[in-house]
């Protein structure tokens, strides 16, 4: 995906998905990559396919799946939520909306749910992962990212019950891992 050749990335991820066991870690990662490659091609008629991939993925990963697989599912839902919002699937800018924006929003909600629904499901899964491994840096970084993107009081309460801000959580994580380039980049994205 980083090369910008999204059609080639789509072909690659499609081959990996076809060879992976449904519901497995590799399947989840490859399906998320495939959906991202489809979204990145910016072909409106294919958004439904990409959202459906993640929706199907969510149904294929049981709540009893291993930790890493469920963590990747949360990442996949975040990808979907980001694209649903970015592509105009989110709430209409004017109450009542209308036109193409409203049609795209309706299409996404039929396939996957609204931006808020997707974020709520991701937050629910992430809260369970935080309970299982509260010190896991990957889970905590996802916590920060999801909190930063969500305006939902329910999500805020679920993922930061003590009222911590995303920036405060990230600063704490950075203090524990000052050499992490990924955390430094996340800090810059969040602070700017």
Please, could you describe this protein's structure?
It is a single chain. By secondary structure, the protein is mainly α. It is built from ten helices and no strands.
Please report the number of helical segments: 10
Secondary structure: helix percent: over 70%
Succession of helices and strands: HHHHHHHHHH
State mean pLDDT (0 to 100 scale).
84
Amino-to-carboxy terminus distance:
25 Å
Please describe the biggest sheet, giving its number of strands, its sense, and whether it closes into a barrel.
Answer: none
Structural class: mainly alpha
Radius of gyration, in angstroms, nearest whole number: 17 Å
**Beta-strand content bin:** under 5%
User: Can you count the beta strands?
Assistant: 0
Q: What form results from the Cα inertia axes?
A: globular
Uncertain spans, ≥5 residues at pLDDT below 50? Answer: 89-112
Write the layout of secondary structure elements.
Layout: H1 6-19, H2 25-40, H3 47-60, H4 67-86, H5 99-111, H6 115-132, H7 137-149, H8 153-159, H9 166-176, H10 181-191
Helix pairs in contact: 1-2, 2-3, 2-4, 3-4, 4-6, 4-7, 6-7, 6-8, 7-9, 9-10
Task: Kindly summarize this structure in a few lines.
By secondary structure, the protein is mainly α.
What structural keywords apply?
mainly alpha, 10 helices, 71% helix
């Amino acid at each position: 995906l980083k090369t910008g050749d999204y059609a080639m990335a789509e072909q690659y991820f499609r081959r990996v998905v076809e060879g992976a066991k449904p519901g497995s870690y590799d399947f989840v990662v490859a399906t998320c990559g495939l959906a991202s490659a489809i979204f990145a091609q910016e072909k409106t008629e294919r958004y439904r396919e990409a959202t459906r991939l993640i929706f199907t993925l969510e149904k294929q990963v049981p709540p009893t799946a291993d930790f890493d697989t469920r963590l990747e599912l949360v990442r996949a839902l975040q990808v979907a939520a980001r694209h649903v919002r970015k592509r105009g699937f989110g709430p209409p800018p004017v109450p009542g909306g209308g036109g193409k924006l409203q049609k795209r929003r309706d299409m996404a909600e039929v396939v996957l749910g609204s931006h808020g629904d997707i974020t709520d499901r991701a937050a629910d899964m992430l809260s369970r992962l935080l309970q299982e491994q509260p010190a896991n840096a990957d889970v905590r970084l996802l916590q920060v990212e999801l909190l930063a993107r969500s305006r939902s009081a329910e999500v805020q309460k679920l993922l930061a019950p003590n009222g911590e801000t995303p920036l405060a959580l990230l600063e704490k994580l950075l203090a524990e891992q000052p050499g992490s380039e990924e955390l430094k980049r996340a800090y810059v994205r969040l602070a700017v």
